[in-house]
Design brief:
This is Carbohydrate binding module (Family 6). The protein is α/β, with parallel strands linked by helices. 18% of the residues lie in helices and 34% in strands.
């Protein structure tokens, strides 16, 4: 009994205390005043003279607007935290600042006038639009952000409805741009009471439309009743979808369209067909109890489908007609010539856990499969820490074996040497790329660089590499240890001048590498160092390749490239020899951060390699992973491989027009293969038309490789269609990288197809029925060492050959090598020669899914017997490699008439106007004359570029002077 009494008293005490607390809380809670808009002074919200009382709005106040115009702008700043809003008329314009109407959790704000938001942030606890009988309210979002909370545990947004479930008027929400998110349900109309709600989405410009996503705590719900409409207008990008969030990751989300609900769809601008996602319900279904197209919709053009087959329910709308899309226009003017490399400057993971065959495999992946130009290797300070005291193991332990593996894999590979940090050889040393007897380091990080000692050191290194059988083609002078941007005596432009002068005087000319400098820590430092070259011609002449890193992100690639063009000759190559940021330490998306490469191509960089090709999974910069043996390739490797194998030794192309919806684009050309790269960092798909100016796409569909999920390393391959006007159409998924391989016809030079089965002699091949479009036979069962001979083939100088091939996934890599012989020569003697062309056969999907590839042919003009030899890369498996359907010879473009600016076939005074136009308005000129490359046709002084330097030669050629 005593225990029971104590428990009872205890409960009574708690109840009394809790009631007291509640009493104190509600006694202290103030709802503020009712404040009315008068507009007695002007239209500015922040002018208290426009309100009654004239103290203006304060925290917990309730706002009333019945007439007039109210402007809430950036000048209004952040409003008081208001309790609610009641608009019965007038207009509210929100262009900036922060409007806060969320002080009381149970309060609703009603809008039965007009609200237009073009900027700023409006945070409103719950919203009713058109909630009164006979009234009409509209809220239009053309920018900024509208965030709607939730009152009394029900809906966030009522359109033509209200929380009392009583009769309402007409409520309109229109979203043309900006962001709209709600905390919970959106309700249009009511099941039993009068009222009409219209939710309108205008095109693809809105950044986000989220239901249930405002506070990330409540699932999104959509409930649309009879007579209410979801109105969607589609622009070239489609529409921004309405996304219902499952914030608790359950199946609590849903969208319900009651009988009599209407869907009103049309084009916002232009026309065109397509299928677009209008609504998506995360982890939930769309319930269709009778959704129908509005009577004004042309049902012969428009239709809709509710798809609940996947995890997310979707409302899809389709329009018949040719696809619409944004324009990406690629010019015909060749820009810088490209080359790529892979970085093996540091070999922490080269031998650890790798057996001989695995090292061979990495060498193949690096030096063969990517078709790169060079391997970056280290000049190791540990070789000569003290002057004259040589430790050969600094090279023979890892560096020389790696170089030999790479050269064995690809005898044509070049080596780019870069001085390696001393602090990797001596613990506690200050960062410096040379031994202390070169840098003058006294042990405390105070430097006194000696260019003469550095020149001896580099001369000895080059001669040492030569003794091992390696030529150093490129030599980095500083590796981020240039004089600008740092204190102390580091490598200046004068030092480089003197070192280069010594090397040229003492090395065999064939052993002299191209000098790469300054390889600065960031673009700003690099540009400053390049600027100091302007002191003398001798300093400028010492630098063959202008280079920079972006280890630190200060400055931009464009700024560095512009400085190089200002100071150095126009044909100077610009390299980034450590491209940082592609995931790496940036932590960005591993696929879409490929933009670090594309931005350099667009800026005019011609040489690119990442930093450290080989590493582990926690090193985001690596392409090849070797945690403890059994190396693998990640998504960066396959994206880089696609870039390099399709454009190494090719040229960048000018982008004449690109949509803002894509974050980065680039185009390149190698022979007649144009590759177009696009990155979509947004979440919505971007429909795209790709049009090459002055060229014709030679195939009816084009290969596209797409990367989205980094775990799908090789990407997804599809074939994208070319429309009747010759443009390529494709929808670019959100958060993706896409590469298009577009084979172009050589202009005015048709080619003749030679069927593979029309060989004059062969070894090891078998004919079979082809599944290719031409319906002919193909050569199959091709194994390593097989060949086919075709006699009496006429070639012009520097022709190209195309091959139609098919290769399923999982088959070993293979090549087609081209050998030429005189008419009647034996096949054995022809094959004993050197191949004049070579091309790798890519995976196409299956044995009868064909693609066209192309090889350059280095030969003089003449009639030849051609032997094609089919090789397997690496050790032979004895298995079939690929199928071969036809070949063709492609002639180079004809010689152009120098100075013929107006493209009329003659050079005379009539060319003056367009010559000037090409100088002053190059983009307009390119669009007027898409078949003219000014760097060729108008390069009057023969320096490889068209610029102001050609004016004098143009005038002299015209006047005969």
């Amino acid at each position: 009994m005593e225990t029971a009494k104590l428990n009872l008293l205890s409960r009574f005490s708690i109840h009394v205390c809790f009631a007291a607390v509640l009493g104190l809380f509600f006694c202290s809670l103030s709802y503020g005043a009712d404040v009315y808009w008068t507009g007695n002074v002007n239209n500015a919200w922040e002018n208290n003279g426009n309100w009654s009382p004239t103290t203006g709005p304060a925290d917990t106040d309730y706002i009333y607007i019945s007439s007039g115009t109210v402007n809430f702008s950036a000048s209004s700043g952040t409003s008081a935290n208001l309790r609610g809003f009641r608009q019965t008329g007038g207009a509210l314009n929100i262009s900036g600042g922060t409007l806060e109407v969320a002080q009381l959790a149970s309060a609703y704000s009603s809008f039965d006038g007009d609200v237009v938001q073009t900027g700023g942030v409006a945070t409103i606890n719950a919203v009713q639009i058109g909630s009164a009988v006979g009234e009409s309210g509209s809220y239009e979002v053309n920018g900024g952000e509208l965030r709607i909370g939730r009152a009394s545990g029900v809906a966030s947004l009522y359109l033509g409805a209200n929380r009392q479930y009583s009769a309402s008027g007409t409520g309109n929400l229109t979203i043309a741009a900006g962001t709209v998110v709600t905390r919970s349900m959106v309700k249009l109309g009511d099941a039993t009471a009068a009222g009409t709600g219209n939710f309108t989405v205008l095109g693809s410009q809105p950044s986000q439309i989220g239901v249930g996503g405002a506070n990330d705590d409540i699932d999104g719900v959509w409930h649309q009743h009879s007579g209410s409409s979801l109105i969607v207008r589609f622009d070239v990008g489609g529409c921004t979808p309405i996304f219902l969030h499952d914030n608790s990751n359950t199946t609590g989300t849903s969208a319900t369209f009651e009988s009599g609900s209407l869907l009103d769809v049309d084009h916002l601008s232009g026309d065109g067909g397509g299928t677009w996602t209008v609504m998506e319900v995360e982890n939930g279904d769309i319930i269709d109890n009778g959704l129908a197209l509005a009577s004004s919709v042309d049902a012969s053009v428009w239709s809709f489908e509710i798809d609940n087959s996947g995890a997310n329910g979707k409302l899809l709308v389709t329009a018949v007609g040719e696809q619409a899309g944004f324009d990406l226009v690629v010019g015909n003017m060749k820009q810088q010539k490209m080359r790529y490399g892979m970085d093996y400057e540091r070999l922490w993971y080269w031998t650890g856990g790798l057996n001989s065959s695995e090292r061979d495999l990495i060498a193949k992946w690096s030096a063969i499969d990517t078709r790169i130009d060079y391997i970056r290797v280290a000049i190791n300070s540990a070789f000569e820490l003290e002057k004259g005291d040589l430790d050969f193991s600094a090279y023979t332990n890892k560096i020389i074996p790696l170089m030999q593996e790479m050269k064995d894999a690809n005898p044509d590979i070049k080596f780019f040497a870069s001085p390696r940090p001393l602090n990797e050889a001596i613990s506690g040393a200050a960062w410096q790329p040379y031994p202390r007897w070169v840098t003058g380091d006294d042990g405390s990080g105070n430097f006194d660089f000696d260019w003469q000692e550095c020149a001896y050191y580099l001369e000895d290194y080059i001669e040492l590499m030569k003794s091992y059988g390696f030529k150093i083609s490129f030599l980095d002078m500083t590796n981020e240890w240039q004089s600008t941007g740092f204190s102390g005596s580091r490598i200046t432009t004068g030092d480089v001048r003197d070192i280069v002068g010594y090397l040229k005087a003492n090395l065999d000319p064939a052993d002299m590498p191209l000098i790469v400098a300054p390889s600065a820590w960031n673009y700003s430092q690099g540009a400053s160092w390049i600027d100091s070259l302007d002191i003398s011609q001798a300093r400028r002449d010492a630098v063959d390749i202008a280079s920079c890193h972006n280890t630190n992100r200060t400055g931009t690639a464009q700024q560095f490239a512009d400085k190089v063009r200002e100071i150095l000759p126009a044909d100077t190559e610009i390299w980034n020899t450590e491209v940082h940021g592609w995931k790496s330490t940036s932590g960005e998306n591993e696929t879409t951060s490929f933009y670090y490469m594309l931005e350099k191509i667009r800026a005019g960089f011609s040489g690119l390699n990442g930093w450290l090709a080989l590493g582990t999974t926690n090193q985001g910069h690596c392409y090849i992973l070797n945690p403890s043996g059994t190396p693998t390739r990640n998504v960066k490797y396959f994206i880089f491989k696609k870039l390099s194998e399709t454009s190494n030794y090719g040229n960048a192309l000018e982008i004449l027009l690109e949509p803002a919806q894509l974050s980065h684009t680039a185009a390149l050309i190698k022979g007649n293969l144009m590759t177009v790269w696009v990155i979509n960092q947004g979440t919505s798909d971007v429909p795209l038309f790709i049009t090459p100016v002055g060229r014709t796409i030679s195939e009816s569909d084009v290969k596209r490789t797409r990367w989205t999920d980094p775990s799908d390393v090789e990407g997804f391959v599809t074939r994208e269609s070319v429309n009747s006007s010759g443009a390529l159409w494709s929808s670019i998924p959100g958060e993706s990288v896409c590469c298009f391989e577009v084979l172009l016809d050589p202009e005015d030079h048709p080619y003749t197809i030679i069927q593979a089965e029309d060989e004059d002699d062969f070894s090891g091949l078998q004919e079979e029925q082809s599944g290719d479009d031409d319906g002919t036979l193909n050569q199959g069962y091709i194994e390593d060492g097989d060949w086919a001979r075709y006699n009496d083939i006429r070639l012009v100088e520097n022709s190209a050959m195309r091959f139609r091939v098919a290769r399923p996934a999982g088959r070993d890599d293979g090549w087609i090598e081209v050998y030429l012989g005189s008419t009647g020569a034996s096949t054995a003697s022809i094959l004993a020669g050197t191949p004049v062309g070579k091309v790798a056969v890519p995976e196409t999907g299956n044995w009868q899914e064909y693609e066209t590839i192309e090889a350059y042919i280095e030969s003089a003009a003449g009639d030849y017997d051609v032997v094609l030899k089919f090789d397997e890369v690496g050790s032979t498996s004895g298995k079939s490699l690929f199928n071969f359907n036809w070949l063709s010879v492609v002639s180079p473009e004809p010689t152009v008439l120098l100075g013929d600016a107006n493209d009329d076939g003659v050079f005379n005074n009539g060319d003056i106007g367009q010559f000037v136009n090409a100088l002053l308005n190059p983009t307009i000129y390119q669009m007027m004359y898409p078949n003219v490359d000014p760097n060729v046709r108008l390069d009057m002084n023969g320096d490889g570029f068209f610029n102001n330097g050609d004016i004098g030669a143009f005038v002299s050629a015209l006047t005969g002077g």
